[in-house]
Amino acid sequence: MAFFDELKQRARINKKTIVLPEAMDTRILKATQIILSQDLANIVLLGDAKQIQEKAAQEQICLEGAQIIEPQLSDKAKRYAQKLSEIEKTMDAQTAEKWIQNPAYFGMMMVKFGDADGYVSGAMNTTKDVLKLAMKMFEKVGTKILSTALLMLVPNQEYGAKDGVYLFSDCALNENPGYLALSEIAMTSAKTYEKFTKQKAKVAMLSYSTLGSAKSKATEKVIKATQRVKEKMPDLCIDGEIQLDVAIVPEVAKAKAPDSDVKGEANVLIFPDINSGNIGCKLVERLANAQMFGPICQGLEKPINDLSRGCSVEGIVGTILITAIQAQR
């Protein structure tokens, strides 16, 4: 898709260094080969160099141009461990030196010290493992809460976003956000969408109800969140609470919400909780054959991004590109 090609162009303009701690995953190695062969970013792989190279040879993957670092042999390990013990206040120096040999910790510390520009993990580790560590190491910026978003490239452009590029949030981190948190997620997600697409965000605050067709605590939360976003960002195109078909089907929007600003052309979908978000994104990915990039962390001082453990090679490539572009800021 044109959007994917544009990401590649933007990444090449100002190449960044992305560290990948899960170097024994074949998908990671295949993504590395694609990134390097197309000159999209510099890649650092973490782990046992011999094992990584043997794995690549078995899979006929070329890693020419990749830097491979073994954490336990690095001359920076001691400095990283000292910083880790400062962050994890209950961890003594000896324990920190042991933990810093874990590629996940070592990789994040590379970003912390500016030895890499961004970090992508999650093909083998859970979202909880990745983000829990990130929240300890990095400050929040531009928002009161950390959230995640998924960029979804949907081949069927009949509905919603005319180019098939959507942003879904929050599908990975905030389990059941209150209305204040939900409003923060919506505002941050709108900015994320506009940063990557350079198009106007049209935000749908999703619910099982449309503009009062049902009333409950769940619908009230979405209504209050929408009102707060409108107060904070009066120029943002947003509507809620609305059902998904109202958000992405113009004919249904005319019938159910004729005064909607979104008019069935939503490109940013804000889910009321993680259950609906996670189910929704995976339904679209599998049934609509969509490309899913992320989860993208929103609100961290440095670009630390997650992957689904069911991610594709193309999804990893896209997430690395997104991370590199985030680092250009």
What this model shows, in words?
The chain is of the alpha/beta class. The chain folds into two domains: 2-139 and 300-327, Rossmann fold (3-Layer(aba) Sandwich); 147-287, Rossmann fold. 45% of the residues lie in helices and 16% in strands. The chain has a six-stranded mixed β-sheet, with helices on both faces. Strands 3-2-1-4-11 form a five-stranded parallel β-sheet, with helices on both faces. Strand 7, helix 9 and strand 8 form a beta-alpha-beta unit. Helix 1 (2-13) crosses helix 13, helix 6 packs parallel to helix 7 (127-137) and helix 8 crosses helix 9. The radius of gyration is 21 Å and the shape is globular. The mean pLDDT is 93.
Q: Key features?
A:
Rossmann fold; 13 helices; 16% strand; 5-stranded parallel beta sheet; 6-stranded mixed beta sheet; globular; alpha/beta
SSE arrangement:
Layout: H1 2-13, E1 17-20, H2 26-37, E2 42-46, H3 49-58, E3 67-69, H4 77-87, H5 93-99, H6 103-112, E4 118-121, H7 127-137, E5 147-153, E6 165-169, H8 179-197, E7 202-206, H9 217-232, E8 237-242, H10 244-248, H11 250-256, E9 268-270, H12 274-287, E10 291-298, E11 304-306, H13 313-327
Parallel strand pairs: 1-2, 1-4, 2-3, 4-11, 6-9, 7-8, 7-9
Antiparallel strand pairs: 5-6, 5-10
Helix pairs in contact: 1-13, 2-13, 4-5, 4-6, 6-7, 8-9
